[in-house]
């Protein structure tokens, strides 16, 4: 899949999330409420990471969840927030990749051994 196809699939995901939200009378919540929800989901992701990779195992009576599921929730809520603020995540992604590919091109040791252009 080309980079363009990948970013277009991100745009399609935002469109699907928008259609989902628009079916409800409440529609999009305020940015502050969405931020609280995103924070909650990131906290749940942190908890799962801690259970799987940290020192705090799950209690025996806890329902199983996965890191994958929690990352999915973070992505979904991020898309809701972006949609409500009219932010095109495809454009944001492309700008960020350009920035990281320029600014951080040689920040970390590269597999190809290059240290500068």
TrEMBL record:
Q: Which SUPFAM superfamilies match?
A: all-alpha NTP pyrophosphatases
What positions does the domain NTP pyrophosphohydrolase MazG-like occupy? 29-108
Q: InterPro entries of this UniProt entry?
A: MazG-like_dom (IPR004518), MazG-related_YpjD (IPR012359), YpjD/YvdC (IPR047046)
What is the protein name for this chain?
Nucleotide pyrophosphohydrolase
The lineage, from the top, is: Bacteria, Bacillati, Bacillota, Bacilli, Lactobacillales
């Amino acid at each position: 899949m080309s980079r363009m196809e990948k970013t277009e699939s991100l745009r399609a995901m935002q469109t699907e999330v928008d259609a989902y939200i628009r079916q409800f009378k409440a529609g999009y919540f305020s940015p502050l409420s969405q931020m609280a929800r995103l924070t909650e989901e990131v906290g749940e992701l942190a908890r799962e990471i801690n259970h799987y990779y940290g020192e705090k195992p799950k209690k025996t009576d806890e329902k199983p969840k996965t890191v994958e599921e929690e990352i999915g929730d973070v992505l979904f809520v991020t898309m809701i927030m972006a949609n409500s603020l009219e932010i095109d995540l495809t454009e944001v992604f492309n700008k960020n990749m350009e920035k990281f590919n320029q600014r951080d091109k040689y920040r970390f040791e590269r597999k190809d051994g290059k240290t500068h252009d």
